[in-house]
Amino acid sequence: MARYKGPVCRLCRRAGQKLQLKGARCLGPKCGIETHNSPPGMKAGSLPQRRPSDYALQLREKQQLKQIYGMLEKPFRRYVRHAERMSGVAGEMLLQLLEQRLDNVIYRAGLTMSRPQARQWVRHRHFAVNGRTVDVPSYQVKPGDVIVVREEFRASGHLNAAREAGAAGGNLSWLRVEPAEWKVEILGRPTREEIASIVDETTVMEFYSR
Fold it and tell me: Which CATH superfamily is domain 9-98+196-208 in?
């Protein structure tokens, strides 16, 4: 599956804020925002900051949301069109669809340090959904689904380090995490209040409605 393979710290620098793309590195002094607090290819304070246009603001929000979930334009646009057909506020439906991706659920459950790491582990067939191994990061989970870490992967040092660090986890009403059984149960669908997004989803939908 297609994905962005370039340097990710420059994405955070372009956005001007941390997108949490490199796990523990984003929390330490080596974070790109901490070491180079300026857009890529530009020295800090070298050019005066101009007020961005409405289109630029919409484009920036859209790009940030894509980068947070590790998506390219074509599949992301499909999510937008799907959200527009759903009943409810389109922007909130978009966030809900993105949150219900398998790689994101694994990250939210605190089993990985970042979404890219979750994506890699799903592709490596380390997780099963309802007893069936799934290697598609975009797999949409639904209420009642049970995600289990496959037994041969449970001794992984990286997995245990992420779990002990409580990388993302948190108390989410739509997830039940049972660490002792290496299991995550989907209890419902995420609400807007539980989606800690730094992006204005309304602005994203406005971009696609132009």
Answer: Ribosomal protein S4/S9, N-terminal domain (1.10.1050.10)
Residue 8's nearest CA partner among 30, 24, 27, 32 is 32
Give CA–CA dist 86/69, Å, rounded: 20
Report the topology of domain 102-188: 3.10.290
pLDDT in tens, 6-60: 666 656 656 666 665 655 555 555 565 556 666 665 555 555 566 778 898 899 8
8 Å CB contact between 184 and 105: yes
Q: Which of 20, 43, 6, 18 is nearest to 117 (CA)?
A: 20
Distances (CA, A) of 48 to 42, 44, 45: 11, 10, 7
Tens digit of each residue's pLDDT (9 = 90 or more) over 63-88 = 889 988 988 999 999 999 999 999 99
Report the largest interatomic distance among the alpha carbons of the chain, rounded to a whole angstrom: 56
Instruction: Give the C-alpha separation, 87 to 195, whole Å.
Output: 19
